[in-house]
Amino acid sequence: MNDLFVSLVIPTYNERENIGPAIQRASQVLATAARDFEIIVVDDNSPDGTGAAVQQVMATNGRVRLITRTTDRDLSRAVVEGWRHARGNVLAVMDGDLQHPPETLADLLQPLRQGEGEIAIASRHVRGGGVSHWSLWRRASSWGAACVATFFLPGILRHVKDPMSGFFALRRRVLEGVRLHPQGYKILLDVLMHGRFATVVEVPYIFEERFRGGSKLGKKQVGQFFARLFRLSVESGHAARLGKYLVTGSVGGVVTLGSLMLLRAVTDLPLVSAYSLAVELAILNNFLLNEFWTFADATTARVGLRTRVIRFLRFNGTCVWGAGFNVGTFLGLREVVQLPVALAGLAGVAVGYVWNYGVNANATWLDLFPPQARRAAVESRERRTQDRRSLPSPGYYHEAYTHGNRVQRFWHRGKFGRVLSRPRPHPILDVGSGPGVLSALLRNGSHLVVSLDRSFEVIRFAKETHPELCGVVADVRHLPFRPGHFRTIFFVEVIEHIPAQWSLDVLRELRDMLHPAGRLILTTPNYRSLWPALEWMVSRWGPIDYTKEHVNHYSPARLEREVRDAGLTVIRAESFFVVAPFLAWLSERAAWKAMDVERRWCGRWGSLLLLEAGRT
Ligand code: GDD
Ligand code: MN
Questions:
Q1: CB of 216 sitting under 6 A from ligand 1
Q2: Which of 39-53, 119-133, 395-409 shows the lowest per-residue confidence on average (mean pLDDT)?
């Protein structure tokens, strides 16, 4: 059954000689291909009398309407104006200069009728399509424009071979409720980025030579095209991706240099091997950042390990080529053109960036288009985060400590290694003990260790796993102990969970619990380090959303200030974990060594802050 009521819009500017035949041929096709149709010519008050020519046709063809716009001249806006007056359930557009053969309309309507596509595009770039006699220059610029388009709107070329086509048809519902603010020549880009559709099909056509008159595509239109691309990139969120990718790239640079220095310090690898390894580490680092940040929305539907590995290999390959282009550009500009080093270097980096982003966005992270795919991805992400809202099992940290992956295990061991490196006379209080991992490590012979937590479940788990512990459930703001009782109080990764307006009270309470010669040992994430990025990634991966759990963010300075305000003296302050834990993936020994190096050289840039304080 044919349900198509087609509203064909033909924009014109100075097409007096072409518009008559164009309308006539289109009418013939539509009479058989559609159930009903109308042809709306939108003329921008052409000085050559196009309007009069259309009126002449209207005298014998009742399906033709003419809209004359007198205050504006723009192809895309003319098309949108035509669609606003359209009554059909299918909106179509075709040039009025016969370069779009009207007979192709039949091929455009067929997939719409059969439900194969909600948008059908006449394409020069699918089998059977093409251009009749284009100069090499025009072919190259068309190709270049497509590359630029897919750089700013990644994924578009993968799904639509000819997104620059001005000849297409769509179901009206695709644009229902969508406000288009187009400009310039490429209305289809706006439709593709803002429309609501799930399926696009392309049908081939040959872009004919101009029959009469000349093209109106000039310098101004080219400028508009780039401006438009950028706007669409911002509107669709892709521009933000470009920024994120730039950040990731810079982090990669830092990781390369950092791990090179580290590898030179802790291993005796030759320079070339050390450098290659450093670069590979940076590539891995950047892959993770891109996978879970820059392109997070594109990966939600494909999170299996296998697809991740494939993406990683693609990313790796692209980056190696990118590095080649980077160096090649640098050497070329330096040696041949004799540019200053800084300029040549910058150009090399820019070329590498454009290549890396363009290829990875389009070939590594594939699912960036159409908008529906993005919308579905966002929804599935929301669902996932909701699933995780429930707290992890009481033994979660115990599991992570005993059975976690290498990096996880090293993270906890390394942290406790630092925490336990200080003398710790008993009795000991472990505040926020969780399932008792630290408490169990603290127990030494007949030492008394009291483990305190707000959660009954967690304390029960701790006591079942480590029967020797003395577990207490209490609100840390009101501790059920004699003042001045404990020689050592551990407060390991707790304070960041306490709302900022109470943390000072809690510290004061702990001070009161402390023996006059006692020590408070406190750790918390350092929000003046790479930690926020780590936290974000771990939150996306793991069962706990730390970005929500951590409500109190400390910098080294703020932590010390607050500890002093609570009436304590800072005895020692350090930070640890810059990249060391990630080396554990390769070798635990290297990670331990790296940790030492970091402690000595990285000052306050470690991801965790460790503070030892006493009573004044
Ligand atoms: N109303 C109105 N206002 N119509 C315009 C204007 C304008 O400012 N500028 C151009 N047109 C009309 C022309 O009269 C013609 O019917 C159609 O829009 C296309 O304009 P051309 O100037 O002939 O474009 P082109 O041949 O260079 O480019 C065509 O080819 C592209 C493929 O490379 C366009 O049709 C593109 O849409 C197409 O994708
Ligand atoms: Mn044309």
A1: yes
A2: 395-409
